[in-house]
């Protein structure tokens, strides 16, 4: 299961009345490692002028890796996080999370990061099983 949804929130979701803030709070509580990584990327992006910031440290366990996969593989979760933090997320190798400024999404750095060549350059034998 991706998220631990409180009964009251699930009840509101069944009627379609869930705010982004409620949804993001559920994500934060359910996927704390993913939240921490994405928060750190957002903070780093906010302190500089670079087009993007990233986190490339492998997770300490498969549990944490699973949180990243669930957060970034779900359109709803990823979209909620992007809106909350005001950045576009990109993901490689089951653990490399990058946050791009919205203005950079049409730029060369972003296109290179998400390109097949960019993915291939980020491979190594250690990452094959991630």
From TrEMBL:
Top-rank taxon: Bacteria
Protein name: DUF222 domain-containing protein
Organism name: Amycolatopsis acididurans
């Amino acid at each position: 299961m991706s998220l631990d949804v409180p009964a009251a929130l699930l009840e509101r979701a069944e009627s379609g009345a869930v705010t982004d803030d409620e949804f993001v709070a559920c994500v934060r509580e359910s996927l704390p490692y993913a939240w921490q990584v994405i928060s750190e990327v957002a903070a780093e992006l906010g302190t500089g002028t670079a087009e993007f910031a990233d986190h490339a440290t492998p997770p300490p366990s498969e549990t944490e890796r699973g949180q990243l996969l669930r957060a970034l593989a779900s359109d709803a979760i990823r979209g909620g996080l992007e809106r909350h933090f005001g950045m576009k997320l990109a993901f490689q190798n089951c653990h490399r999370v990058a946050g791009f400024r919205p203005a950079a999404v049409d730029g060369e750095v972003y296109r290179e990061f998400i390109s097949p060549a960019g993915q291939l350059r980020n491979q190594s034998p250690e990452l094959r099983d991630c």
